[in-house]
Amino acid sequence: MNKNSLIFLLSSVGLIVLPHSANIPPALFGFFSLMLSWRFVCVWRPQYLPTTRILFFLTLLAFALLLSQHRHLLGRDAGTNLFILALGLKLLEIKAERDIYLVTYLAFIVAASLFLYEQSLLIAAYILAVCCALLATLVTINSIQVQTRAALKTAAVIILQAIPMAAIIFILFPRIEAPRWMLFEEKNKAKIGLSDSMEPGSISDLGTSEELVFRVKFTGAIPPPKQRYWRGPVLSYTDGKRWTQLSSQRFEAHTTPPRTTGIAYSYTLLMEAQEKNWVFALELPTQFAKPLAQTGYYQLINLENPTKRAEYQITSYLQYNTQRVTQIEYQDSIQLPREPSDKIKQLVTQLHGFDSKPDAFIQQLLNHFKQEDFHYTLTPPLMEDNPIESFLFTTRRGFCSHYAAAFVYLMRVAHIPARVVTGYQGGEFNTVGNFLEVRQANAHAWAEVWLENQGWVRVDPTAAIAPERIEQQLNLDQLELGGEIFFNASNAKHTNWLKKGLQLWENADYQWQRWVVNYSSNQSNFLSSFGIHDFKTMMQWLMALVGLITVLLSIFLLHQKKKAIDPVLRLYQQFCQKLQPTGLIITSREGAVDFAQRATTALPEHAEMIEEITAAFIQLRYGRVTTRENFIRFAKLVAKFKLNNRRLGWR
Amino acid sequence: MAGEKPVNDAITLTHRRIFILPTQRGLGMLLLIVLLLLIAFVYNNNLAYLLTFLLASVFFITILHTFKSLAGLVVQAGQCKAVFAGEAAGFDIHIHNPNSNERPHCQIKLTKPHSFTLKPHSKITLTLYSTTQKRGWHSAGTVTVFSTYPLGIFYAWSPLRFNVNALVYPKPSAIELPFPEAPSADTHQGASHKGTDDFYGLQSYQAGDSIKHIHWKAFAKGQGLFSKQYSGASTAAEVWLHYDYAAGHNVEERLSQLSRWVIDAEREQIRYGLVLPNLKLMPSNGLSHYQQCLEALALL
Q1: How far is CA B216 from CA A242, A291, A625, B219, B269, in A?
Q2: What pLDDT score was predicted for residue A483?
Q3: B chain contacts of residue A131, beta-carbon cutoff 8 Å
Q4: C-alpha–C-alpha distance, residues B294 and A341, integer Å
Q5: Residue A97 reports pLDDT greater than 90
Q6: Measured between alpha carbons, how far is A242 from A231 in angstroms, rounded to an integer?
Q7: At a CB cut-off of 8 Å and minimum separation 6, what does B278 contact?
Q8: What single-letter DSSP state applies at residue A46?
Q9: Contacts of A161 in chain B (CB under 8 A)
Q10: Minimum CA–CA partner of B121 in chain A
Q11: Cis peptide before A291 (omega within 30 of 0)
């Protein structure tokens, strides 16, 4: 076994397992590292290789380790760990060439298992590079005296040539969901998004993370930033502190469909993996396909597994009229935990809540927020006991959920049906990829009131107190610092190029997620646009394209460039061809002089010419100095040479 | 696989002559691809799918690469020296790479494989040995040029049969018998020294004596340098090596004995003639006579 290829193999195996360090238990990773280092030492000190007995003991130890971590050997985690341990043990038992192949194949499986944990563009590029190194190991053991660099190059060339075909198969290979019995129970790894309840006073529960929640690609017009409300769960029940959802099944059968006007916005929504089955559509979604469904609160939910990234086609209208409400819905929307305090009633009276029209009262209340000493902050003081009253009269500091909760509460006091809507607001537009990115930091809460003839109408009290929050992006550095938020546009200029680069990267990542990672869910859409609808046509195209690529590659690979023939030799061959009709054919063992001798005896009348041509040829081909004139003379001689008609039997 | 008929000319390895099949390792890789496909399917993981398809394409493309490592080579059989039965006959094989791609690892096999590397537009000559058993013409058999480059998952080979034969002389008998007493019952033998062994004594070595005539055994025993003396002094003796007088139960044993005598006679520089049932070679010596005699024995 060549030492070089062994080092090569061990390094690539190490590189394959390295990213797994985050995914597998430390004990197992430690065990594998130990095996790998042991084998590395043995490259130079083969006497330290374990005996069969020690190897058996190590195998038992590995099994014990595995069983201590997992109760069974199926599933993603246990399977990955099993393969990693097997790889580690097999490293210590490389005896023949076939063991190297086994190790390489195991490493490929471990590489594939990494994709079950992470699917970013970076990790894919990394794995591709390491796969190249693994193939290069195979190249080194299949050739004598091939340098490591040359082997890597060969492997890279093979992989590069394989990519077009792999892409074709990837695009056309039919994706079928695995049957349920094949799926192993997995712990839910989805990230926590919006909560299904809201408790404004207790903690600062606004997510400030940059984590991506979904991306939106509009096919036509893009709604203005102020109008980008992504509807999530609707909270209509409150106990005075907490706001929670109520089931919409109690009334949704009686809900009249909303009437829509204005522009229809069609878009593709690419949701990241979620814990909940909520799908955040632009207010108000009207058209959507399975597996989506709409609740009585006009919220879209996914009826299938939400823990996978998925793509949906949705159409929404910004102008809508939801019309009547049912009795139950009305009752739910004016529900209050107890009789409001006098202080609150006094405020509502002061703002003409009881004696003016609902929209007048709404305006009054928003003005109240605007004119009084209310502040928008992400780190408000705690308001444990009576959050709404403390907020309205004492602290007057809060973020969206404080304003939304207080607003809805006061509406209900004035007998106007109102409820809190949570979701996301805004989103950053990626100019490179032409799509909108909505992050966890865009989480928002607003209010919805029901008005006669208008149906449910959105009112965002936060917009009144901090319109910048709605119109611009939050500066997240400031969010981290806490305190009051200032929206400073000049700051953005300094980081423009950085932002551009970031957008570029985000776009690449988006395209990657959309076209590669999430391809299963939009394969049929994509292929339909090419007129490929069914399994049979898919297979036919697959065969045809793979065949085409094979032909192209064969031509590219196997086409041998003919060595350029010396023009002198070519002219001489022409001369020989001219002699051919007389039966004079130069043999491979014959020199030009010998041939000339034969030719002159056979054709005495051409003797002079033949000798002249031969002499010129010898001088040009073997002579020390060859000039352009000589060549031209030779060319003319050959051109002039012509057999006698008699010789050709024309007579 | 016998393949095509034996040929005299150079053979260019083309798609008609190159066969290709996956090796055991290649089948292992297929198994790996199926396993990866299963993982991708169960987890509906598109990156795992991508890796699977990439490996499948690599597998497929390796067919072309392995084929390419042989395609275009020009193989020609060269000279082959005559040998005695039981010795290994060496066949010269010239391999020419007329193309601009390097052949990093090819192998050629007659009885055991040899590896070779060919740079673009270069030639190599290898001698392949094959053990002979019987006298007569020994055919080179099938020369297999093969390669598993680059990944060892495919085995491309080309069985080549050349019209080259090695002449195999009969194996010389191990028993040293004196040359036959009586020449053939030929009536025209009057001129020869009849009934005598040509060797008649030893004499002290004198400058000018042939080295071949030195009695080395005596020299080895420390008895000094002696030259063997043959009757007729200056002219070499003459023997007739007659098929009928050769000891042996069957043809092969007799030929084997004759072969031994031819070797001995040539070594002793005796003029020897050969009489076979169908052929008679007049007494002479020298390399060409020696080869003529042995060839006659080989082909009887």
Answers
A1: 121, 105, 62, 5, 16
A2: 38
A3: 51, 54-55
A4: 132
A5: no
A6: 20
A7: B300
A8: G
A9: 61
A10: A563
A11: yes
Predicted local distance difference test score (pLDDT) of residue A180: 63
pLDDT bracket for residue A316 (50, 70, 90): very high
Contacts of A554-558 with CB under 8 Å at 24 or more apart are A554/B64, A557/A161, A557/B64, A557/B65, A557/B68, A558/B64, A558/B67, A558/B68, A558/B71
Nearest-angstrom CA–CA distance, A188 and A246: 25
Q: Which residue from B258, B264, B279, B263 is spatially nearest to B197, judged by alpha carbons?
A: B264
* B250-267 average pLDDT score: 86
The phi-psi region of residue A402 (left if phi > 0; otherwise alpha if psi is between -120 and 50; otherwise beta) is alpha
* pLDDT at position A530: 85
Provide the token pair at B7.
């040929």
pLDDT computed for residue A480 by the predictor: 37
Tokens, residue A591: 């020199």
Catalogue the E-assigned strands of A298-416: 300-302, 310-321, 375-376, 397-398
- Residue B39: CA atoms inside 13 Å, Cβ hemisphere, count? 30
Q: What does the alpha-carbon distance between residue A232 and residue A282 come to, in Å, rounded to a whole number?
A: 10
Mean pLDDT of A129-138: 92
Taking CA atoms, what residue in A is nearest to B67? A558
**pTM for this model (two decimals):** 0.66
- Give the end-to-end CA distance of chain A in Å, rounded to a whole number: 77
DSSP code, position B3: -
Q: Which of A270-274, A437-441, B128-132 has the highest mean pLDDT?
A: B128-132
**Residue A569 corresponds to which amino acid?**
L
List the domain boundaries for chain B.
11-168, 236-299
Cβ–Cβ below 8 Å for A109 and B117: no
Instruction: Report the alpha-carbon distance of residue A50 to residue A463 in Å, rounded.
Output: 71
Whether residue A183 has a cis bond before it, omega within 30° of 0: no
Task: Please spell the DSSP secondary structure of A83-151, one letter per residue.
Answer: HHHHHHHHHTT--SHHHHHHHHHHHHHHHHHHTTT---HHHHHHHHHHHHHHHHHHHHHTSTT--HHHH
What's chain A's Rg over C-alpha atoms?
39
Q: How confident is the model at residue B80 (pLDDT cuts 50, 70, 90)?
A: confident
Which residues does chain A have within 8 Å of residue B62's beta carbon, measured at their own beta carbons? 158
First to last CA, chain B: 31
* Cα–Cα distance, B62 to B66 (Å, whole number): 6
Least Cα distance to A638 among A579, A575, A582 occurs for A575
CB-nearest to A144 from B35, B52, B115 is B115
Contacts of A11 (CB under 8 A, 6+ apart): A133
- Predicted local distance difference test score (pLDDT) of residue B232: 46
Residues of chain A in contact with residue B20, where contact means CB-CB under 8 angstroms, are none
Phi, psi at residue B84, to the nearest 5°? -85, 150
Give the model's pLDDT for residue B4: 64
A–B CB contacts, 8 A cutoff, strictly below: 154
Average pLDDT, chain B: 82
Both structure tokens of A114: 């990494």
Question: How close B108 comes to chain A (CA, Å)?
Answer: 14
CA angle B205, B207, B209 (to 5 degrees): 65
Q: For A185, which residue in chain B has the nearest alpha carbon?
A: B43
Cα separation, B105 vs B245, whole angstroms: 56
What is the spatial distance between Cα A325 and Cα A251, in angstroms, rounded to a whole number? 9
Tokens of A599: 């030719």
Which range among A8-17, A220-229, A319-328, B186-195 has the greatest average pLDDT? A8-17
Please tell me the distance in Å from B53's CA to the nearest CA on chain A.
Answer: 5
**Is this complex's ipTM strictly greater than 0.85?**
no
Which residue bears the tokens 């042995």?
A: B294
CA gap A644, A651 in Å, rounded: 10
Q: What is the pLDDT of residue A104?
A: 94
